[in-house]
């Protein structure tokens, strides 16, 4: 069976689609067979990203490793048929969830072998994971953490394995060190209570927004036109390499 990677967070703007595209493409470039489902049926940023990539390759007459894009079906169980269609050809299937609580998102979390939760490094995003006092003390899990807990219970009842949950601290700035330490301390406390790992994600970089119209990632820059890698690009590439290593996915050896 394919290993399912769910990228979820009930808050928009946390970097879910950017994370989804870079993880899926990195795996494809390393020779793994990768499929993807965009479960944000309204905005479809991940799906549009992959469609832009296919269109770019067609225009340029090049062949870049590209994840297969499936589509959720209709009816009472829209995910199972789409997953079964992808599983025949895929080692990994990535599910990109919307920034809201939906039935599709709930189902995707219960199916996750690996769960990636990107969050901006602020207490606004932290509030979806846990309630916190003005003094910085964690008071208890919040709505998103409770949803993950329910997903874990559903997997346990079904006899499935545990969810390996990784929280990514995106947009870590070099300034505001006091706030960074407070958020980091609160995450460390919460991770011990409810069982997730914490890792640095992607910094705020213009390149991520520039790549979307052509469906490219940091790993495609040389193949797609010979653009010279800047120091910012090299640093972002290292962030992606660190993320893939931190995911600890089965059978994956980093080769980029």
Q: How would you characterize the overall build of this protein?
A:
- It holds the Pfam family MipZ.
- This is ATPase.
- This protein has 256 residues and is α/β, with parallel strands linked by helices.
- It has one domain: 3-Layer(aba) Sandwich (Rossmann fold).
- 42% of the residues lie in helices and 17% in strands.
- It contains nine helices and nine strands.
- The strands form two sheets. A seven-stranded parallel beta sheet has the order 3-2-4-1-5-8-9, sandwiched between helices. It has a two-stranded antiparallel ribbon with strand order 6-7.
- α4 crosses α6.
Considering the chains and any ligands shown, give keywords for the structure.
256 residues, alpha/beta, seven-stranded parallel sheet, 9 helices, 42% helix, 17% strand, globular
Question: Could you give the topology of this structure?
Answer:
Blueprint: E1 3-7, H1 16-29, E2 34-38, H2 45-60, E3 68-70, H3 80-87, E4 92-96, H4 103-111, E5 114-120, H5 123-126, E6 130-132, E7 138-141, H6 143-158, E8 164-170, H7 177-194, E9 197-200, H8 206-211, H9 231-247
Parallel strand pairs: 1-4, 1-5, 2-3, 2-4, 5-8, 8-9
Antiparallel strand pairs: 6-7
